[in-house]
Structures are given as structure tokens and as C-alpha cells.
Amino acid sequence: MYLALCSGVMKVPTAPFGKAEPITKQIPETAGVPFENIGSMKGVQQLDLLDATHALLLIQSQPGTLDLQAAALP
Asked: Which one of 1, 41, 52, 74 has the minimum C-beta count within 10 Å?
């Protein structure tokens, strides 16, 4: 699963979801399932799968503009 967040794109494997310990209190850094930050995908506002190996991205390259791009998934 890929997530587009304000801080960038994260790749989150879904296999560990069923075994993950619940987060029951505030944590200082991160907790839960492991994830990978995809540093090459900056400014992504929305990400949708195009096919098994590519995604469509809405990227804000400048304030007030959005670019539509297709990109290979890492």
C-alpha cells in the first residue's frame, strides 16, 4: 500500500496488520507496522494505482499548480 501524506509518500506493507500490537498511548516517534519513506516522491498530493507497477500522481510543484504524472512504483 502507498500513502500520500503532507510529509511525502510512504510504502506500508499490509501483511503485518493482523499481528501488530495496538497503539494504546501517545508515543514520541513512531510505532505500529513498519513503513518506508519514498524520498523521490516529493510534493505528491494524491496517488492512485495505474497498474501493478505504475501510479498516477498529482504533484504540487509550485504553489497554486498541480501536475499530473505517471511514475514507476519503487
From this structure: 52
